Amino acid sequence: MKAIAKPTGIVELSMEVNGEPVSATVPARTLLADFLRDRLRLTGTHLGCEHGICGACTILMDGNPVRSCIMLAAQADGASLTTVEGITPKEGLGPLQRAFKDHHGLQCGFCTPGILMTLTAADPKDYPDDDAIRELLAGNLCRCTGYHNIVAAVRAAWGRDVRGAEGERPGREGDA
């Protein structure tokens, strides 16, 4: 179904968000990130650069990662959207989330939802080594880490040896 624009600059939307049907009427120029955060209260979708560069706003649309800060809500009409809230089980953490916690793959956590969404859409067999994982994550900026523990968390979540190329075990800065 295509979004129906009314002469007043309002559009009617119908989509699925985290497995639930959603219908809404919004101004035609409403950004998808704003719709998710403000209208649906799914605040795990973060706004960082608001230019589609940092990746904090990454969600899945029909299974593919997209930047919700540079899309209009009307562009998602008829689509199936998944936000970070949609990958979190009702009880506890999902495998990627648990690996990030266990391997200290986050610090402030601002970039983490976008990184998790990028990883959720990825097929692990397409990213066989650390360099490939880093390439996958190149569109998600983290200002707090050096990505070392993020890569270790990905390896753990994907059932790979957590030791890096040099054989070290990642830990927190300052660990002996």
The gist of it:
Strands 1, 2, 3, 4, 5 and 6 form a 6-stranded mixed beta sheet that branches.
What features would you describe in this structure?
With 176 residues, the protein is an alpha+beta fold. The chain has 2 domains: 4-87, Roll (Ubiquitin-like (UB roll)); 95-157, Orthogonal Bundle (DNA polymerase, domain 1), CATH 1.10.150.120. It is 24% helix and 16% strand. It has 5 helices and 6 strands. Strands 1, 2, 3, 4, 5 and 6 form a 6-stranded mixed sheet that branches. Helix 2 (95-102) packs across helix 5. The longest helix is centred in the middle third of the chain and has 10 residues, at 112-121. The radius of gyration is 18 Å and the shape is elongated.
Overall geometry: elongated
Average of per-residue pLDDT values: 88
Q: Structural class of the helix and strand makeup?
A: alpha+beta
Total helical segments: 5
CATH-derived architecture of the largest domain: Roll
Q: Distance between termini?
A: 57 Å
Low-pLDDT stretches: 165-176
Helix content estimate: 10-25%
CATH class of the largest domain: Alpha Beta
Tell me the number of structural domains. 2
The CATH topology of the largest domain = Ubiquitin-like (UB roll)
Radius of gyration: 18 Å
